[in-house]
Design a protein that fits this description.
There is one protein chain. The protein is of the alpha/beta class. It has 2 domains: about 160 residues, Aspartate Aminotransferase, domain 1, CATH 3.90.1150.10; about 240 residues, Aspartate Aminotransferase, domain 2 (3-Layer(aba) Sandwich). The chain contains 14 helices and 15 strands. Helix 2 packs antiparallel against helix 10 and helix 10 crosses helix 11. It comes from Defluviimonas salinarum.
């Protein structure tokens, strides 16, 4: 675990920009990681360098060859990060766009006369893509229903809908609202058992910064990542597509190579910044294994990240020191319950008698950055069945500390003690 290595958490934090202070507001605790993780300082430096290079790819000059080498390394590092064998790695405009392309290609390449299967837990990125192409193909779009109490969707619920007619299936690996993960290998295996030719696509966008990814073991056909949620930067997403999905017809330049997914010239800096991410994970993992293999060190980093965040989640939900956790505080309702098992870095909650936006503002005044989630097209699938108009989402990452969790719990404790002192609109009122 990261905190078991003296000084390592400080070293980790030193590699990220703005880890304890906002460049606009000053000192703060950053618990808005699900909205986009902090950036590695190396990513910022690489982004600036590549933004300044005037040369293009595919030319016979040293600068162009250097760009091509960075792209090749980036693809290799993305493949290593996912442990994806075969198939193709490609970069798109965002993780959402990547999911749309994977789903579209699968729907148009699958055998006729079937159904498309997803779940109500999914982010609209995959669910909207599936709805769109179910409409185009005329296939039913079936939805496994997530459990409000646990904040996830079970294998058993998926199995209720799996038949030989499944043509395209989507699985969200972790919910960005409940923070609960899904058993991707088991669900994929269940689909393969009854519909071996189905295309299975995984939304790994929320999961990617929190733990282990192993596409080779999942037995799926597509995986999507948004690098800005994995310590890189905005402006691109990347995906992996299996050989069989890549063989399907897709948008391409006429006469171009059949295996190519990318349209036009991509930003070499996008690939290079993700190499920075994998380099960082390689460095972190070297503190937990003596292995020289790069993938083994990335896996060791993933395990250390998962364990550290589990400790943070346990403290947030069940207390640390003399501070009680959210699960014991009066008036606090936790979305998805108080379980730490399968939870990945996110706690969403409401406080009775306090409007969520006011609570976000109060925490901001206390120097703690969190985010409101509303019953809208992004989060209505989770909030509407609970009868909630909004909630606040608190999201941590492995560079966060127990001291920061304690500071958050103290602030929420103050909020619970004073929630009866005024109306639901807290506004600028300061407690404590």
């Amino acid at each position: 675990m990261i905190t078991d290595k003296p000084g390592l958490l400080d070293e980790v934090r030193s590699r990220f920009a703005h880890v304890d202070a906002c460049p606009f507001e000053g000192p703060r605790v950053f618990f808005e990681n699900a909205g986009g993780a902090l950036r590695l300082k190396s990513v910022i430096e690489t982004s600036a360098a590549y933004a300044g290079y005037p040369d293009n790819q595919g030319r016979d000059n040293p600068a162009s060859k250097a760009l091509m080498a960075a792209i090749d390394k980036g693809r290799a590092d993305m493949r290593l990060f996912l442990n994806a064998s075969g198939g193709q790695i490609f970069v798109g405009e965002s993780g959402t766009e990547v999911l749309f392309r994977l789903v579209r290609t699968a729907a148009l390449g699958a055998a006729e006369g079937g159904v498309m299967l997803g779940s109500t837990l999914e982010h609209p990125a995959s669910r909207s893509a599936m709805a769109r192409w179910a409409d185009v193909t005329g296939w039913p779009h079936l939805l496994a229903v997530h459990d409000d109490a646990t904040g996830t969707v079970s294998l058993e619920e998926y199995q209720r809908h799996i038949t030989t007619d499944v043509r395209v299936a989507t699985i969200v690996q972790t919910s960005p609202v409940t923070g609960m993960s899904v058993d991707v290998p088991a669900i994929a295996a269940a689909i393969r058992e009854k519909a071996p030719e189905a295309f299975i696509i995984v939304d790994g966008i929320q999961h990617a910064s929190h733990g282990h990814i192993d596409c080779a073991a999942y037995g799926v056909d597509g995986y999507a990542v948004s690098p800005y949620k994995v310590f890189a930067r905005h402006g691109y997403g990347f995906g992996w597509a299996s050989d069989r999905l890549t063989a399907c017809k897709k948008e391409q330049v006429v006469g171009g190579p059949a295996h190519v997914w990318e349209l036009g010239t991509r930003d070499a800096g996008a690939y290079a910044t993700f190499s920075d991410v994998v380099d960082y994970l390689d460095w972190l993992g070297s503190h937990f294994t003596d292995a020289t293999d790069r993938r083994a060190r990335v896996e060791a980093a993933a395990a250390a990240i998962h364990d550290h965040e589990a400790r943070l989640m346990g403290a947030m939900l069940h207390g640390t020191g003399n501070l009680r956790g959210l699960a014991e505080m009066p008036g606090v309702t936790l979305i998805g319950g108080a379980s730490t098992e399968a939870r990945e870095g996110v706690v969403s909650l409401v406080l009775d008698g306090v409007e969520s936006g006011a609570l976000v503002n109060f925490l901001s005044a206390e120097g703690i950055r969190v985010h409101i989630r509303n019953d809208d097209h992004y989060c209505g699938n989770i909030l509407k069945p609970l009868g909630l108009r909004s909630c606040i989402r608190v999201s941590v990452c492995h560079y966060n500390s127990l001291e920061e969790v304690a500071r958050f719990l103290s602030a929420i404790e103050a909020a619970t003690e004073n929630r009866g002192a005024g109306a639901s609109q807290i506004g600028p009122l300061r407690w404590g």
